[in-house]
Amino acid sequence: MTRGAEVESVVDASSPLGEAMRNKLILGLFLPLQEGAWSPSTAPRDTSWSYEYNSMCTKEAERYGFDLAFGLGQWLGKGGYGGSSHFREHELDPLISSAALAAETSRIMLISTVHVLYGWHPVHLAKYGACIDHISGGRWGLNVVTGYKPSEYRMFGLEPIEHDLRYSMAAEFTEMMKTLWASDDNVTLNGKHWSMTDAHILPKPMHGRPVLVNAASSSAGLDYAAEFSDLIFITSPGGADPHQAVESLPAHNKKIKDLARARGREVRTVINPHVICRETEEEAWAAYQAILDNEDTVAADNFVAAFTGGDNRSWRGHSRKQWVVGGNVHLVGTPEQIVEWFQKLHDAGCDGMQVNFFDYLPDLQLFGERVIPLMIEAGLREGPAR
């Protein structure tokens, strides 16, 4: 199958991604669509997986000028990761949630995670995505995930697929969607894994095609990102400690961007900090320690085992304690210290921050009121929401 025509209008200045790129740092919110969010801990908080709660988070993020909101996708059995917290047993579907949030927001980009190898056909997702794109006024994006957990594949009656083959299949799937989005005529394609005869979708996405995203660390995953993605969610090779992260990230970011430039493309890298911000450093570290002191041991054990027991190449530098807190890089401190770390991560080659919190709404509100004005002052963000 030949490569489809690249639709460059997705990064036009008038598109949501083009507007986001006017900032020195793209700013995203990792939504708590799943029970317990990122931390298998029973420390007190009001964070909820419910739609109402996620809607409030998204609208607050939009009010504070965030560029995008994003939810992960997962498929777990009864009890989730277990423990007294039933960690991640409940989760809202990110594709359906994005459609609902599109009707409640006006500016923020909405990125949906979809496991494209779990029974999807490119025609389905090209059509559904274009529909959500129109509901949102051109603000929808797709995070392409292949999946790696054998239990998830078997939930759909499928056998696990070898690592590099998964990305070859994802590439064919993405090419077919791009062709459907770009073509004014019926499309007939016969690939190795999917075929279509006289397929056609209308309406077309509003900016040529939606924003395409993926997360990867392996060679096959990074090759996919370099070929297709506008944004790639990266992980710190040095683990969650920010000192080690900023040492390991420059080479990692350069490798990814060089791969894209060799294909005549530009890709922006976005990292996921767990932000624990308080007015004093002592308060911030006390909040960090409270998460650890209230660890749900059974859930934490299962959570760590699920990510380290398969052929997933990301997150390998993280300790068990860092998994309990959650998030890829832990930024703990005052608003001024958080902004200093954002600057250092940017200097290490990161183009965006996809932040998550422990107690979402109060933490998000403190971030919006105290951190974002300092980001503007530091030149990392442009100013108030448009």
From TrEMBL:
It is an enzyme of class 1 (oxidoreductase). Pfam families: Bac_luciferase (PF00296). InterPro entries: Luciferase-like_dom, Luciferase-like_sf, SsuD_RutA_monooxygenase. Keywords: Flavoprotein, FMN, Monooxygenase, Oxidoreductase. The keyword Flavoprotein applies. It comes from the Bacteria. Its EC number is 1.14.99.46. GO terms for molecular function: monooxygenase activity; uracil oxygenase activity. Residues 28-351 form the Luciferase-like domain. This is Pyrimidine monooxygenase RutA.
